[in-house]
Amino acid sequence: MAVLGSILLVIILIWGMLFFVSDMPGDSFEGAPPPLTRQEMALSQRLKNHVHYLADTIGERNVWHPGTLERSVAYIEQHFKAMGLPVTRRPYALEGEAGQRMEGAVYNLEVELAGGDPERGVMVIGAHYDTVPASPGANDNGTGVAGLLELARLLQGQTFHQTIRLVAFVNEEPPFFQTPEMGSQVYARESQAAGERITAMYALETIGYFSNRPHSQSYPFPLGLIYPNQGHFIAFVANPPSRSLLHQTLGIFRHHATIPSEGLAAPSFIPGVDWSDHASFWEYDIPAVMITDTAPYRYPHYHQPEDTPDKIDYAAFTRVVSGLADTFVELASNKK
What we know:
- By secondary structure, the chain is of the alpha/beta class.
- It is built from 9 helices and 8 strands.
């Protein structure tokens, strides 16, 4: 009986934990999505153009290829400036073995859409523009950069209470990942030192691959017990201290979006929860959420030479970006 009681206790604890991490507001979109609107079709083409240019024309983008890394910077700057958005280069020097392979500085790139209420602080939306060696990085993270550029286009000209910053981060990938030279860690550290009040951060990380095929989605144990086995949804991932921000964001997204969505608020010891730029802000107690197609838990070409533009589902990718634009407008327009 004691053994049975212990087993039941473990089961209850597991299900209690699963309820806590997965209990989310609103309902995920179900059924066949409506056709893309004319505006969404134009958005889809722009997203596709960005991904093709980054992955096909530029290709691998990292400090071992400083020429293509600088071309990435120029491309991002060019498109922000074409929208009438001044770009701030936030440079920093690399140190150590990896940094010795590149002369000069690397750059985080920032544009700001000023809000009307300084008391609301700053919302940061970011995506890294570097790739792992030998990969053209169409999905990881060409889709994130494309989404960032088009969110800027969709958000500009609107009136917000909260200031929005759109930031392209360098050096998210190894060997910089989760080190002090990771671009988002540098940005978060510098912002903290400058006394900037960042109240929320969102990381766009690998957001373009979707599949309705059964068992196309995997998870670290025990998440597969409660989440879909089809990789047809966009995921919003946070740590427990960011749970309130996650709930607010996902609830709004589900009101606007025409693509399925799932949310997870879990500790970092679950593999994948802290695998992007959002975790750099957790170190400074800033609520942050990763928005992702779940990368290696779904995408078979993750960190491979085969991560090419033809793998992206541009209609689903467009629905993600369109839903996020409406979500960020509502979040930044709230008066509270």
